[in-house]
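Subject: Predicted fold for Carbon-nitrogen hydrolase, 277 residues

User T.R. writes:
Posting the sequence so we have a shared reference for the thread.
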Amino acid sequence: MKIACAQFDAKLGEFENNVHKVEQLLSNSDLTGINLLLLPEMALTGYKFLSKDEISPHLEDRNNGRSILWAKDRAKLYSCFICIGYPEIDGDQCYNSCALINPQGELVHNYRKHYLFETDLTWASPGEGFKSIDLDPFEKLGLGICMDLNFKYSEEYDFHLNKFGSFHLENKSKLVIVPMAWLLPEDSLDLLDTSASKFCSDTLKYWCNRLSPFFDPETNLDDNPIYFVCCNRTGKENGAIYCGTSTVLKFTKNNIKVLNVMNVIQEGIMVTDIKDY
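User M.O. replies:
I've generated the structure tokens; pasting them so everyone works from the same file.
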């Protein structure tokens, strides 16, 4: 099963320019036989809007929004599933969402971010909860968006509960996909040096820690493999610096295997055939 991640530097509010960039990246990549294309959180609009008024012109309907229509067209073109993050409006409510489109260009699921980051709190409502859906050819597909991997930003919370990982283990998700706009830690700014850039190991270790139920022998009793794919963005935006490091991981009892990873500043398409591992 081939999964492609599109990591790039989206410019805030520049939808057409962002579309042009990602289409260039796609056209320069070998996408033969891919089953799923994963894009970042709020991939084509940019992420760090500072208020509801600022993001309002960029909010989209889940059926006919600009990001959705683009994804439907590309899903048919590449004959694959596409998962794309976008800012959703539904009546008088707004959500940080991702849409899952099938190869026929149909919306099969719309997921809304459950745990909101401080930037989201200026405009979005939380989704109702984590999701795991039955969907061929993925068997059981788990969905999340960025901060869902973490914990509730706005409340007292037990860091060690790892609710996202526990949910997907209990619901027997086989593949978990997560669009992201994850920040680069302040003590890792040296990774922006183009002569020495690599992936952010501290962030990768942190993600693995948040997914500890997947490899803990006390929780993963069946030792069934769980694949985790996150597609992060890169670049800078309104003072935010993103850490790239889009990753494909395979978890089994007592073991984590990094199947593929991009560096902090890299723009491109990373294709991984997870059945090779």
